[in-house]
Structure formats: structure tokens, C-alpha cells
Specification:
Layout: H1 3-8, H2 16-43, H3 45-49, H4 55-86, H5 89-107, H6 113-116, H7 118-136, H8 138-147, H9 155-183, H10 186-191, H11 196-213, H12 219-226, H13 234-241, H14 243-274, H15 279-307, H16 309-330, H17 337-355, H18 358-364, H19 371-388, H20 390-401, H21 408-422
Helix pairs in contact: 2-4, 2-5, 2-8, 2-9, 2-11, 2-14, 4-5, 4-7, 4-19, 4-20, 5-7, 5-8, 5-11, 8-9, 8-19, 9-15, 9-18, 14-15, 14-17, 14-19, 14-20, 14-21, 15-16, 15-17, 16-17, 16-21
Length: about 425
């Protein structure tokens, strides 16, 4: 039987509208929260939680707290992956959003160094770790809700819906910071303004929980349950039978993550401390670039359904190798607007091409009974490799070797991504019901 025929035989099935909203809202909340943290870590946390340090050390330490959640994310993917593969996608997605939302809101209430000393930074790391655990179960569940409801010839398109949540969350978060910085002065932003986005995220969490409670379990997981093809030990089976796919997927995605946080978190910190751009200027430029990012996610995902994932993503990964070597030259001179526009414009074309189709690729590497665990662990290991330390390493490389060394870490990961793709078969026509 075909995938379409199998899905037709399953009684409970969500509408396309519900699938789109349920998959997109989670990643929108995820990236809203992460961008709120990244923006605050670059602009405000050095002064709020590390005022006793030199400006450079305070920035590096602040960006390292940004990486705490990436270390926690594989833990979350192990935890939520187990439940997602043994109990179902829907229940696990609701729980992961709840954990993520509560920890994010808690960050908005944390006292700074002036009130509790180093305890403020420790509490920040604790909340960030819990946030990372929740995030560890979010992405894989969201893309499975989309792709396991998709027609066989439109998996990349459906997988792009949760991916579009990334620029949506980014745009909303940066837009809110832009308005706040235009409304409040610097002392007000340091006192309470930076907290507002973390508290506002509660609204998105409530919406997300409401939508997901009205979501049906995915047809393919229901089918697996009916045919007794689920497993009570998904992690054991995953690492026994699919460890090669985990390694390949991690490096396929690693370069993408390094680029993503270089374009966003690192560029925001570097442009406002070394290039003469104001924080609000950079937020406005990033908001414009993120629209381009969203368009590329959708168009390249449609292309990946037509000509295959490997052709699209391998081409973009090779482009990433070149970009990692040349982008520091775009960022030379003070307030170089043309250079910054080239950096963001070219960067987000490559980034959108890389990020869109991967929503289908990583799940396609794994069979249904370990797909939640496999896609989630792979995605979050890539986050550790590519993003946990990327902003801090880039800052250190520049301080040690000069501005033209900023792309070296991304270059190494981009080359590893090319090698991973060259050893991976096309996934477009795999049997997704397996």
C-alpha cells in the first residue's frame, strides 16, 4: 500500500490547517525564546549578570551561558524522544512546550548581579538548562507532526512549516526589542526592558498549548501502534541500528547551525561592539534579512520535493564553505552598511536553502519507531557542535587572530557537512512508513 492509502485507513486525522499551526507555533515559540536570550546575552546580560568583568570577558561569559541550553538539548532529545516514540507525538509535544515555556518566563524574573551576586548568573544557567531540555523535544516532534501528515511527494514542503517558525519567532522577538529600545532608554532596558520579551513569550506558549491539545496523533504513528510496530526501548534500538545515520545527520546539520548563530547572535554582538552599529540598527537589518530567510525556506523546500534533497543541500553546503572564508571581508571598516547588507543578504540566502529541506531530511533518515528520537538527537547534537560555542569561539578567534579569523570554525564544520552529504544517499523516495 502507498503512504496515502495507509493514511486514509487511519480514523483520526488532523486537518492541514491544524497540522500547519501545531508544527509552526512550537518552533516560533522556540526561536522567539532563543532569540530573546541571544539578543539579551549579546546586549544586556554582560552588564546585568557580569558587571564585575572586563567588557570582553563579560561578553564571552554571557555568550557561554547562551550555549548552556545547547548542552541540555541532547538530554531533552533523549528524554522526549523516548516518550515520543513509545507514547506518541502529540502528548510529548505538549509537555515539551510546557517545560520550555515555564523556564523561559522564569528568566524574566531573575535578579541580577547587583541583587544576589554570582547567584544571578547561576540561576540564569539553571533556567537556561531547563529551557534546553524542553527545546530538545520540540523540533523533532514538530517536524514529525508535519511530515507524518504529508503526502509522499510533499514531505519537504510540509517539513518547511515548522522551519518557517524560526524566522517568524525571530521577527517577532527582534521587532519587540526594536520597539522597546525606541521607547525605553538604556537604563530602563537594563533594569526591566530586557525582561519583557521573556514574559511576553507566555502568550505564545498558551496559544501553542491550545492548538496542540486539538491535534490528533500522526497517521503513521497510529498505524505503527495498530500494527504493533512501536517499541518500548527506542533509544536502544536507535543506537544499535541507526548510529551511522546519527553521525551523518549531525554533521549535515552542524555547519547550518554554526552559520545560523553567526548570522544572528554573534553578528549582533560584534556589530554593536566593534563595527559602530547601534543595537536598534542591527535589529532592523536582521528583521529585513529574516523575511528573505523565510522565503528561501519555502522555495527551496518545494525545489527539494521536485529534484531531491541532496542536490539542493549539497550545493548550498559548498556555498557555505566559500562564504565562511569571505564573509569577514564584508565586515571591514566602521559602520560599513554595504558590507553588512552583503553579509546578511548572501548569508541568509545560503541559510534559508540549508534550513528548509532539512525538516524532511533528518526524519527520513530513521524508521517510524525511532524517528522522534533519531531526528531529535541528531538535530540537537548538531546544535551542540555547531552553535553552543560558535558565538564565543568567533569572539575569541577575532580577539586572538584578528577579524579575518571569524569564519574559521564555520569553515571546518562546512567541510565536514560536505563530506557527510557525499556519504549519504538521497532520501526523497524512501519508504516513510517503514
Amino acid at each position: 500500500m502507498t503512504e496515502t492509502e495507509l493514511k486514509t485507513n487511519v480514523v483520526a486525522k488532523s486537518s492541514v490547517k491544524t497540522v500547519i499551526l501545531a508544527s509552526m507555533i512550537g518552533t516560533a515559540v522556540e526561536f522567539f525564546d532563543f532569540y530573546a536570550y541571544g539578543t539579551a546575552a549579546a546586549a544586556y546580560f554582560p552588564k546585568v549578570f557580569f558587571p564585575q568583568m572586563t567588557p570582553l570577558l563579560a561578553t564571552v561569559l554571557s555568550l557561554l551561558t547562551f550555549g548552556v541550553a545547547f548542552v541540555a538539548r541532547p538530554v531533552g532529545s533523549f528524554l522526549f524522544g523516548h516518550f515520543g516514540d513509545s507514547l506518541g507525538r502529540k502528548k510529548t509535544l505538549v509537555l515539551s512546550m510546557l517545560v520550555m515555556g515555564v523556564s523561559t518566563i522564569a528568566i524574566g524574573f531573575l535578579p541580577g548581579y547587583q541583587s544576589v551576586g554570582v547567584w544571578g548568573a547561576l540561576l540564569l544557567c539553571g533556567c537556561r538548562f531547563v529551557q534546553g531540555i524542553g527545546l530538545g523535544g520540540e523540533w523533532s516532534g514538530a517536524v514529525l507532526v508535519a511530515t507524518e501528515n504529508a503526502p509522499a511527494d510533499k514531505r519537504a514542503l510540509y517539513g518547511a512549516f515548522p522551519e518557517v517558525g524560526a524566522p517568524l519567532g525571530f521577527f517577532l522577538c527582534n521587532g519587540l526589542f526594536f520597539v522597546l529600545e525606541k521607547t525605553l532608554d538604556q537604563s530602563q532596558m537594563l533594569t526591566f526592558g530586557w525582561r519583557i520579551p521573556f514574559l511576553v513569550s507566555a502568550v505564545l506558549v498558551v496559544i501553542g498549548l491550545y492548538v496542540r491539545r486539538h491535534l490528533e496523533e500522526t497517521p503513521l504513528f497510529q498505524l505503527a501502534q495498530e500494527n504493533d510496530k512501536t517499541t518500548k526501548t527506542p533509544l536502544k534500538e536507535l543506537f544499535e541500528k541507526n548510529w551511522r545515520e546519527i553521525v551523518k545527520g549531525t554533521f549535515i546539520m552542524g555547519g547550518t547551525y554554526a552559520m545560523f548563530y553567526t548570522l544572528t547572535t554573534w553578528s549582533l554582538a560584534y556589530a554593536t561592539t566593534a563595527l559602530g552599529f547601534s543595537h536598534s540598527e542591527m535589529l532592523l537589518l536582521l528583521m529585513g534579512a529574516i523575511v528573505e530567510f523565510a522565503v528561501l525556506i519555502m522555495t527551496t523546500s518545494v525545489l527539494a520535493d521536485k529534484i531531491g534533497r541532496k542536490k539542493v543541500l549539497l550545493t548550498a553546503t559548498v556555498a557555505l564553505v566559500g562564504f565562511s572564508l569571505v564573509f569577514p571581508y564584508f565586515l571591514s571598516g566602521q559602520h560599513n552598511l554595504v558590507g553588512m547588507l552583503l553579509f546578511l543578504g548572501v548569508g541568509f540566502v545560503i541559510m534559508g536553502t540549508l534550513y528548509g529541506p532539512v525538516g524532511a531530511v533528518l526524519p527520513e533518515l530513521f524508521p517510524t519507531k525511532v524517528r522522534y528520537s533519531g531526528a531529535g538527537i541528531t538535530y540537537n547534537l548538531a546544535a551542540v557542535v555547531g552553535a553552543a560555542v560558535a558565538p564565543s569561539i568567533s569572539t575569541w578567534l577575532i580577539a586572538r587572530f584578528g577579524p579575518h579569523a571569524a569564519g574559521l570554525y564555520m569553515f571546518v564544520l562546512a567541510v565536514a557537512s560536505v563530506i557527510a552529504w557525499l556519504t549519504t544517499k538521497e532520501t526523497k523516495d524512501v519508504d516513510y512508513t517503514r
